[in-house]
Amino acid sequence: MRRDIFQAIADPTRRAIITLIALQAMTPNAIAENFNTTRQSVSKHLRILTECQLVKQEQQGREIYYSLQLEKMKEIDKWLDQFRKIWEARFNQLDTVLSTIKKQKK
Amino acid sequence: MRRDIFQAIADPTRRAIITLIALQAMTPNAIAENFNTTRQSVSKHLRILTECQLVKQEQQGREIYYSLQLEKMKEIDKWLDQFRKIWEARFNQLDTVLSTIKKQKK
DNA sequence: TATAGACGCAACCATTCGGTTTCCCAATTT
DNA sequence: AAATTGGGAAACCGAATGGTTGCGTCTATA
Protein backbone atom coordinates (compact mmCIF):
# COMPACT_ATOMS: atom_id res chain seq x y z
CA MET A 1 0.00 0.00 0.00
CA ARG A 2 1.93 3.01 -1.21
CA ARG A 3 0.74 6.05 0.59
CA ASP A 4 2.55 9.22 -0.32
CA ILE A 5 1.57 12.83 -0.78
CA PHE A 6 1.50 12.61 -4.54
CA GLN A 7 -0.97 9.78 -4.47
CA ALA A 8 -2.93 11.67 -1.82
CA ILE A 9 -3.38 14.81 -3.89
CA ALA A 10 -4.20 12.84 -7.04
CA ASP A 11 -7.85 12.68 -6.11
CA PRO A 12 -9.83 15.87 -6.81
CA THR A 13 -12.08 15.39 -3.79
CA ARG A 14 -9.02 15.13 -1.57
CA ARG A 15 -7.58 18.30 -3.06
CA ALA A 16 -10.86 20.04 -2.32
CA ILE A 17 -10.80 18.78 1.26
CA ILE A 18 -7.25 20.02 1.67
CA THR A 19 -8.21 23.46 0.44
CA LEU A 20 -11.25 23.48 2.69
CA ILE A 21 -9.40 22.67 5.90
CA ALA A 22 -6.32 24.69 5.09
CA LEU A 23 -7.59 27.69 7.01
CA GLN A 24 -9.74 26.12 9.69
CA ALA A 25 -10.17 22.70 11.26
CA MET A 26 -13.40 20.93 10.38
CA THR A 27 -15.33 17.79 11.31
CA PRO A 28 -16.01 15.03 8.73
CA ASN A 29 -19.70 15.91 8.66
CA ALA A 30 -19.01 19.58 8.08
CA ILE A 31 -16.60 18.71 5.28
CA ALA A 32 -19.07 16.32 3.65
CA GLU A 33 -21.71 19.05 3.60
CA ASN A 34 -19.49 21.04 1.28
CA PHE A 35 -19.54 18.38 -1.42
CA ASN A 36 -22.25 16.05 -2.55
CA THR A 37 -20.78 13.01 -0.95
CA THR A 38 -21.29 11.03 2.23
CA ARG A 39 -19.53 11.34 5.56
CA GLN A 40 -18.12 7.84 5.17
CA SER A 41 -16.53 8.72 1.89
CA VAL A 42 -14.96 11.84 3.37
CA SER A 43 -13.87 9.78 6.33
CA LYS A 44 -12.00 7.42 4.04
CA HIS A 45 -10.28 10.30 2.29
CA LEU A 46 -9.33 11.76 5.64
CA ARG A 47 -7.82 8.46 6.66
CA ILE A 48 -5.62 8.45 3.57
CA LEU A 49 -4.64 12.06 4.17
CA THR A 50 -3.88 11.28 7.80
CA GLU A 51 -1.81 8.24 6.88
CA CYS A 52 0.56 10.36 4.86
CA GLN A 53 0.55 13.08 7.53
CA LEU A 54 -1.07 15.70 5.37
CA VAL A 55 -3.81 16.10 7.93
CA LYS A 56 -3.95 15.93 11.70
CA GLN A 57 -6.92 15.27 13.93
CA GLU A 58 -7.95 16.72 17.24
CA GLN A 59 -10.70 15.24 19.36
CA GLN A 60 -13.08 17.65 20.98
CA GLY A 61 -15.81 15.90 22.92
CA ARG A 62 -17.38 13.49 20.48
CA GLU A 63 -16.32 15.53 17.51
CA ILE A 64 -13.04 15.13 15.68
CA TYR A 65 -11.61 18.18 14.00
CA TYR A 66 -9.31 17.75 11.03
CA SER A 67 -6.81 20.33 9.89
CA LEU A 68 -4.10 20.58 7.30
CA GLN A 69 -0.47 19.94 8.14
CA LEU A 70 0.86 22.78 6.04
CA GLU A 71 4.45 21.72 6.59
CA LYS A 72 3.83 18.52 4.67
CA MET A 73 2.73 20.48 1.63
CA LYS A 74 6.23 21.82 1.38
CA GLU A 75 7.38 18.39 0.28
CA ILE A 76 5.62 18.95 -3.02
CA ASP A 77 7.23 22.33 -3.24
CA LYS A 78 10.57 20.72 -2.60
CA TRP A 79 10.02 18.17 -5.36
CA LEU A 80 9.08 20.95 -7.76
CA ASP A 81 12.32 22.68 -7.01
CA GLN A 82 14.33 20.58 -9.43
CA PHE A 83 12.09 21.73 -12.26
CA ARG A 84 11.97 25.28 -11.03
CA LYS A 85 15.72 25.36 -11.34
CA ILE A 86 15.51 24.18 -14.93
CA TRP A 87 12.89 26.65 -16.00
CA GLU A 88 14.75 29.48 -14.36
CA ALA A 89 17.91 28.42 -16.15
CA ARG A 90 16.02 28.35 -19.44
CA PHE A 91 14.58 31.75 -18.72
CA ASN A 92 18.04 33.13 -18.15
CA GLN A 93 19.23 31.57 -21.36
CA LEU A 94 16.36 33.23 -23.17
CA ASP A 95 17.35 36.45 -21.51
CA THR A 96 20.87 36.07 -22.85
CA VAL A 97 19.54 35.35 -26.30
CA LEU A 98 17.31 38.41 -26.18
CA SER A 99 20.09 40.73 -25.09
CA THR A 100 22.30 39.33 -27.85
CA ILE A 101 19.61 40.15 -30.41
CA LYS A 102 19.28 43.60 -28.90
CA LYS A 103 23.00 44.19 -29.26
CA GLN A 104 22.97 43.00 -32.84
CA LYS A 105 20.22 45.46 -33.68
CA LYS A 106 22.35 48.27 -32.38
CA MET B 1 -11.33 9.04 -17.65
CA ARG B 2 -9.94 11.90 -15.63
CA ARG B 3 -6.53 12.82 -16.84
CA ASP B 4 -4.92 15.69 -15.04
CA ILE B 5 -1.40 16.51 -13.91
CA PHE B 6 -2.03 15.49 -10.34
CA GLN B 7 -3.11 12.04 -11.37
CA ALA B 8 -0.16 11.91 -13.75
CA ILE B 9 2.45 12.58 -11.08
CA ALA B 10 0.81 10.22 -8.60
CA ASP B 11 2.69 7.25 -10.01
CA PRO B 12 6.32 6.97 -8.84
CA THR B 13 7.49 5.53 -12.16
CA ARG B 14 5.97 8.48 -13.96
CA ARG B 15 7.66 10.91 -11.62
CA ALA B 16 10.94 9.16 -12.34
CA ILE B 17 10.32 9.41 -16.08
CA ILE B 18 9.58 13.10 -15.76
CA THR B 19 12.81 13.71 -13.90
CA LEU B 20 14.70 11.65 -16.43
CA ILE B 21 13.49 13.53 -19.48
CA ALA B 22 13.47 16.95 -17.86
CA LEU B 23 16.91 17.78 -19.17
CA GLN B 24 17.08 15.80 -22.38
CA ALA B 25 14.63 14.12 -24.73
CA MET B 26 14.71 10.33 -24.71
CA THR B 27 13.22 7.39 -26.56
CA PRO B 28 10.90 4.89 -24.81
CA ASN B 29 13.56 2.18 -25.01
CA ALA B 30 16.20 4.41 -23.49
CA ILE B 31 13.83 5.38 -20.70
CA ALA B 32 12.89 1.76 -20.00
CA GLU B 33 16.56 0.84 -19.66
CA ASN B 34 16.77 3.16 -16.66
CA PHE B 35 14.19 1.21 -14.71
CA ASN B 36 13.50 -2.47 -14.50
CA THR B 37 10.37 -2.34 -16.56
CA THR B 38 9.39 -3.02 -20.13
CA ARG B 39 9.20 -0.62 -23.05
CA GLN B 40 5.45 -1.20 -23.32
CA SER B 41 4.94 -0.18 -19.75
CA VAL B 42 6.95 2.99 -20.25
CA SER B 43 5.02 3.58 -23.44
CA LYS B 44 1.76 3.51 -21.53
CA HIS B 45 3.06 5.96 -18.97
CA LEU B 46 4.25 8.23 -21.74
CA ARG B 47 0.80 8.11 -23.29
CA ILE B 48 -0.75 9.28 -20.05
CA LEU B 49 1.85 12.00 -19.67
CA THR B 50 1.27 13.08 -23.25
CA GLU B 51 -2.49 13.14 -22.80
CA CYS B 52 -2.20 15.73 -20.06
CA GLN B 53 0.44 17.64 -22.02
CA LEU B 54 3.21 17.06 -19.54
CA VAL B 55 5.30 15.52 -22.27
CA LYS B 56 5.75 16.17 -25.96
CA GLN B 57 7.05 13.84 -28.64
CA GLU B 58 9.26 14.43 -31.61
CA GLN B 59 9.75 11.86 -34.33
CA GLN B 60 13.27 11.44 -35.60
CA GLY B 61 13.54 8.72 -38.21
CA ARG B 62 12.10 5.62 -36.68
CA GLU B 63 12.68 6.84 -33.17
CA ILE B 64 10.38 9.01 -31.12
CA TYR B 65 11.96 11.33 -28.60
CA TYR B 66 9.99 12.38 -25.56
CA SER B 67 10.70 15.49 -23.57
CA LEU B 68 9.12 17.31 -20.66
CA GLN B 69 6.81 20.25 -21.17
CA LEU B 70 8.23 22.30 -18.33
CA GLU B 71 5.51 24.92 -18.65
CA LYS B 72 2.89 22.41 -17.59
CA MET B 73 4.74 21.76 -14.35
CA LYS B 74 4.00 25.31 -13.36
CA GLU B 75 0.37 24.35 -12.91
CA ILE B 76 1.34 22.41 -9.82
CA ASP B 77 3.33 25.37 -8.64
CA LYS B 78 0.30 27.54 -9.21
CA TRP B 79 -1.89 25.22 -7.18
CA LEU B 80 0.62 25.24 -4.36
CA ASP B 81 0.48 28.99 -4.28
CA GLN B 82 -2.66 29.12 -2.14
CA PHE B 83 -0.86 27.14 0.56
CA ARG B 84 2.34 29.07 0.16
CA LYS B 85 0.36 32.20 0.94
CA ILE B 86 -0.96 30.62 4.11
CA TRP B 87 2.37 29.41 5.37
CA GLU B 88 3.96 32.74 4.64
CA ALA B 89 1.17 34.47 6.53
CA ARG B 90 1.71 32.12 9.47
CA PHE B 91 5.41 32.78 9.33
CA ASN B 92 4.80 36.50 9.49
CA GLN B 93 2.46 36.00 12.42
CA LEU B 94 5.17 34.04 14.14
CA ASP B 95 7.52 36.86 13.36
CA THR B 96 5.16 39.30 15.04
CA VAL B 97 4.89 37.06 18.05
CA LEU B 98 8.65 36.76 18.30
CA SER B 99 9.22 40.49 18.10
CA THR B 100 6.54 41.02 20.75
CA ILE B 101 8.37 38.64 23.05
CA LYS B 102 11.58 40.44 22.29
CA LYS B 103 10.05 43.76 23.24
CA GLN B 104 8.66 42.36 26.48
CA LYS B 105 12.10 41.10 27.41
CA LYS B 106 13.46 44.58 27.03
C1' DT C 1 13.13 -6.24 -51.63
C1' DA C 2 13.45 -8.85 -47.42
C1' DT C 3 14.62 -8.43 -42.63
C1' DA C 4 15.30 -6.30 -38.26
C1' DG C 5 14.41 -2.68 -34.99
C1' DA C 6 11.45 1.10 -32.74
C1' DC C 7 6.93 1.94 -31.60
C1' DG C 8 1.89 2.33 -30.82
C1' DC C 9 -2.32 0.01 -29.84
C1' DA C 10 -5.67 -3.38 -28.21
C1' DA C 11 -6.79 -7.23 -25.32
C1' DC C 12 -6.33 -9.38 -21.07
C1' DC C 13 -5.46 -9.89 -15.98
C1' DA C 14 -4.58 -9.03 -11.17
C1' DT C 15 -4.69 -5.31 -8.02
C1' DT C 16 -6.18 -1.02 -6.25
C1' DC C 17 -9.45 2.67 -5.62
C1' DG C 18 -13.54 5.28 -4.44
C1' DG C 19 -18.02 4.84 -2.77
C1' DT C 20 -21.90 2.68 -0.31
C1' DT C 21 -23.86 -0.08 3.27
C1' DT C 22 -23.77 -1.96 7.70
C1' DC C 23 -22.27 -2.29 12.30
C1' DC C 24 -20.29 -0.72 16.43
C1' DC C 25 -18.38 2.58 19.96
C1' DA C 26 -18.29 6.70 22.68
C1' DA C 27 -20.05 11.20 24.02
C1' DT C 28 -24.32 14.10 24.58
C1' DT C 29 -29.21 14.86 25.52
C1' DT C 30 -33.52 14.09 27.54
C1' DA D 1 -30.87 4.94 31.85
C1' DA D 2 -32.47 5.35 27.04
C1' DA D 3 -32.22 7.64 22.81
C1' DT D 4 -29.54 10.42 19.79
C1' DT D 5 -25.52 11.93 17.42
C1' DG D 6 -20.55 12.03 15.58
C1' DG D 7 -17.57 9.14 13.73
C1' DG D 8 -14.35 4.95 12.80
C1' DA D 9 -13.91 0.08 10.65
C1' DA D 10 -15.01 -3.75 7.81
C1' DA D 11 -17.31 -5.92 3.91
C1' DC D 12 -18.64 -5.44 -0.59
C1' DC D 13 -18.88 -3.78 -5.52
C1' DG D 14 -18.06 -1.62 -9.89
C1' DA D 15 -14.59 1.09 -12.17
C1' DA D 16 -9.94 2.35 -12.99
C1' DT D 17 -4.95 1.29 -12.97
C1' DG D 18 -0.45 -0.80 -14.09
C1' DG D 19 1.68 -4.46 -16.33
C1' DT D 20 2.22 -8.13 -19.82
C1' DT D 21 1.53 -10.27 -24.28
C1' DG D 22 0.69 -10.13 -29.04
C1' DC D 23 0.05 -7.79 -33.31
C1' DG D 24 0.43 -4.27 -36.91
C1' DT D 25 3.05 -0.27 -38.87
C1' DC D 26 6.83 2.31 -40.29
C1' DT D 27 11.77 3.21 -40.97
C1' DA D 28 16.39 1.74 -41.81
C1' DT D 29 19.63 -1.44 -43.45
C1' DA D 30 21.65 -5.57 -45.77
From TrEMBL, chains A, B:
Domain HTH arsR-type: 1-88
CDD domains in UniProt: HTH_ARSR
Keywords assigned by UniProt, alphabetized: DNA-binding, Transcription, Transcription regulation
Keyword DNA repair: no
Source organism, top-level taxon: Bacteria
Transcription among keywords: yes
GO MF, one annotated term: DNA binding
InterPro entries: ArsR-like_HTH, HTH_ArsR_DNA-bd_dom, HTH_MetalResp_TranReg, WH-like_DNA-bd_sf, WH_DNA-bd_sf
PANTHER family in UniProt: TRANSCRIPTIONAL REGULATOR, ARSR FAMILY (PTHR33154), TRANSCRIPTIONAL REPRESSOR SDPR (PTHR33154:SF33)
Protein name: Transcriptional regulator
